[in-house]
Design goal:
With 171 residues, this protein is mainly beta. Helices cover 10% and strands 44% of the residues. The mean pLDDT is 88.
Length: 171
């Protein structure tokens, strides 16, 4: 479910959103690239087409060929509370998937208020994202996807992903 995403100028992580080959990552990983390389956990590589980006929420949607990929269930980041256990998964710049375990510091941090389309809820944690881990999943203690890890101690909430997913699919 966790993948490595490599663009022309950046490398990070991503998460398979469904079994149909949709990968969610950070916009800073794909930058302005129309295509990226996606490496699955088993080492298989697939060329990914960047379908769309959400620059305000720092999200990107990539499509790879194939079906039947394992994916994470979506959680509800609105139910997170200060002190809840969470984990990020990501590919470091070299090596295999690593995990970082931490706690929620602020479950509803608002960094931007740019009108209705710009109201993005972020999740602040007490753990740094590993180099290469940007774009990887933030999961709750039940293993459900509650956010996408960004640089530093912050993740974009899964609700933002659900909100912008239709427009990301359209490009």
């Amino acid at each position: 479910t966790v993948v490595r995403v490599t663009g022309s100028g950046a490398q990070g992580s991503g998460v398979l959103k469904d079994g149909q080959g949709l990968v969610v990552t950070s916009q800073s990983v794909v930058v302005d690239d129309p295509t990226v390389m996606v490496e699955l956990a088993d080492g298989t590589r697939r060329m990914g087409i960047v379908l769309g980006v959400d620059k305000v929420g720092e999200l990107a949607l990539v499509s790879i060929s194939g079906q039947g990929y394992p994916s994470l269930l979506l959680g509800d980041s609105r139910s997170l509370a200060v002190g809840d256990d969470v984990m990020t998964l990501g590919f470091p710049l070299q090596g295999s998937v690593t995990e970082s375990v931490g706690r929620i510091e602020e479950p509803a941090l608002q960094l931007f208020t740019l009108g209705p389309a710009g109201q993005v809820r972020y999740i602040a944690t007490d753990m740094d994202v590993i180099p290469g881990g940007t774009g990887g999943p933030l999961v709750d203690r039940e293993g459900r996807l509650v956010g996408i890890a960004l640089a530093g101690l912050v993740a974009t909430s899964v609700e933002r992903l659900v909100e912008v997913l239709p427009s990301l699919k359209r490009g």
